[in-house]
Amino acid sequence: MKKNTRLKPWTTKKSKYLLRDRWITVRADECITNEKIEITPYYVLEYPDWVHLVVIDKKGRILITRQYRHGAKKIISEIPCGTVDQKDRNVLEAAKRELKEETGYTGKFILAGVTSPNPATHTNKIYTYLVINPVKDKVVIQDPTEIIKYKFMSLKEVLKLIDEKKFFQATHISSFFLGLKKAGIKLPT
What we know:
Blueprint: E1 11-20, E2 25-32, E3 38-46, E4 50-56, E5 62-69, E6 74-78, E7 81-83, H1 91-103, E8 105-115, E9 126-136, E10 149-153, H2 155-163, H3 170-183
Parallel strand pairs: 4-9
Antiparallel strand pairs: 1-2, 2-3, 4-7, 5-6, 5-10, 8-9
């Protein structure tokens, strides 16, 4: 790259939708770079925004879920998460709904950060919330397509899951550390 080259967004000549679904939209763009190089097709994935929830109880334990993930064909440990639905009034409402659906918990929600799962190809954002003072609600609304087990684990136990590749979803690990940072929790040395 030349030293004096200015970074500029690409120009999109044309877009064609290949798939439109409630979960994902796949778009093929015809792009021209600042250097007049044509890139076609350039695939873009349009997902709804996602919410990730780092739930920490008064003992400093983290709420971890386990469920089957078909893409990996494995049972995976993660943090509670979900999609911002069109019926949600805002991202916070989606976060509260998802936590209640997956675990039956409520609590105090604090925005820990906003990230992109992959800015090269994804249009959506991940909103990570730290949830403190979790309380089990008497009413649990479960999604019949999700069988989720959950439990509170110590920081040491969660870090071991990451080391053992049992908790290995990259965006969840990122959100997990954002939540720890927001909570002021230092990693063991």
